[in-house]
Amino acid sequence: MKKLLVLAIILMSLSLSLSAEAFMDGEKLTFKIKYGIISAAEATLEARTSVYQGTPVWYLSTNAKTYSFFDKLFRVRDRVESWWDKESHLPHKFAKNLQEGNYRQHRVHIYDHSKAKTTYQRWSYKQARFNNSEMEMPGDSQDILSAFYTVRNQDLQVGKSVRLNITADGRNMPTEVMIHRKEKLKCIFGEVECLVIEPKLRGEALFKQTGNIYIWVTNDQYKIPVKLESKVSFGSFVAVLESAQKVPLKLQ
User: Fold this and answer.
1) Which residue in 20, 39, 55, 247 is a FRET match for 87, CA 20 to 30 A apart?
2) How many Å from the N-terminal Cα to the C-terminal Cα in the chain?
3) What DSSP designation does 88 have?
4) Integer Cα distance of 196 and 227 in angstroms
5) How far is CA 101 from the centre of its chain?
6) Is pLDDT above 70 for 133?
7) Is residue 67 predicted with pLDDT exceeding 90?
């Protein structure tokens, strides 16, 4: 009887460890975005428990906005959202609303993984309505935002890549996330060892991306992003983690 009890405890512990996420419920990361030496914008990345049509999900979101003084030069108001199933780790819905200078984009994907299909909704500003279309996709597709959290849950090793399919913006994008190197970096957690990763995404990412994007994540089981560099439609930028809530690492 005791042996059965011990076995049950081991199995329960193993099950919990396998289902554990790399992030905590309520995690909120705030980044300061710099263009050259100018701090011009702020971006947040959040993950919290929610419900989508009665199903427990992770509600993932990112918001980016330029500071008021920078709005006169180039105003940015970007919001990206994902409703990511807690059990299957597949997205139910993805929404992207970008406002970058004169550029506007509002797109939505509703995923049906059982049928390997998605409904793609693209907002027409001239017609003031969504134009809908249905398309096929791989059954294990992620969206742009859930893909990052999927990568955070992986055992990342230098020289190896993570491959996954991203369905967004009305297309299927086979994506390779390359793990380039380890690098020590000073951040709000002190000096920590990071992994430098690069998503090779065929298409637009969180912003209207036009160049390579590099992300520094902590080299531990949490893989918290602490720095990001990229070129986008409004120039190149560096995003540095400025504050963090609901994270397991101690702030310095």
Assistant:
1) 247
2) 48
3) T
4) 9
5) 23
6) yes
7) yes
